[in-house]
Input
Amino acid sequence: MKWDQSFSIGCDVVDSQHKELVCLVDQLESSLESGLAPHQLGEALKFVVNYTRHHFAAEEAFMETIGFDELENHKKLHGNLIKEVTDILLRLKHGENLSPEDLVKFLVDWVLKHVQEEDQKIGVFTRNRKHVAEQAECRLKAETSRRKLTLARMEKLKDLFKQKLIEIEDFKEQKVRIFTNMLKELGLNQLRAGFDDLHYFLSQNVICHNELRAVVVAFLQKSDLQKGLSEIIEIENKLLYLRSFHEFEMITDSQFDDCKAKILDAL
Ligand SMILES: [Fe+2]
Output
C-alpha cells in the first residue's frame, strides 16, 4: 500500500499525517511477509491506535475550523474506527488467536476506505472554500508544532523518570506544573488532544490519577470556564469538557447542571 496524490485532502498537516499512516500500514504489510509474532502485531496495532487518536483530533480541529458540514457524521466514523481497533486489541489481550493476515487486511481496508472515501469529502469541501481552508491550516500548523514540542518534552521526561534520574517525590510538583502548562499551551480548543496525551502518560505510568487531577485543578484555576466554553463552537465538545471537569470534581453537581442547561438552551 503506497501513498498517492488521490489521498490528498488539500491540507498539508492532515495530508502528511495521512502519509505517515499509510506508511505505517505499509510497514505492517511488509512485516507480515517476513513473519510477525502476535505480540509484535499487538504492539504495532497499539501504535496505530495511539497515532490515529492524535491524527483524528487534528483532522477534527481542521474540519471544525473550516465549518465542514458533515463534521458530526465524520466524527462518529472516527469514533467507530477507534472502537473497532480497540476491540481487536482487547481480544488479543484476552488471548484470542486472530490471524495476522486478517488483522493487517482489516487495517489496510480501514485506512483505504476511510482516507480515500470519507476524507475525500473534506477535500471537496476544502477546494470550494480555499481561503477559509488556508486560514484553518495556518492555525492547525501552529497548534500541531506546539503540541509536537510539548510531547517531545514529555517523552524526554518519561525517560528520565524511568531511568530514575529524577527522584519521584521531588519530581511530583514539577511534573504537575509541566503537565498543567501543557494544557495551557494547548488551550481550551485543543483540550481533547491534551486529555488524550494525559491519558497516554497515565497508561505509561508517568502520571498517576491524583497528579492528573491536580493538573486539571491547576489548569481550571487559571481558566475562565464560562469564557472558555463560549469559545468552543461544537456543542458536543462543550459537553465533553464539562463532563471531564465534573469527573475531576472541579465543579459541583449544581454547577454542572447549570452549565449543561445553558449549553442546551442555546441550541
Ligand atoms: Fe477522517
Q: What stands out?
A: The longest helix spans residues 130-162. Residues 142-265 form one domain.
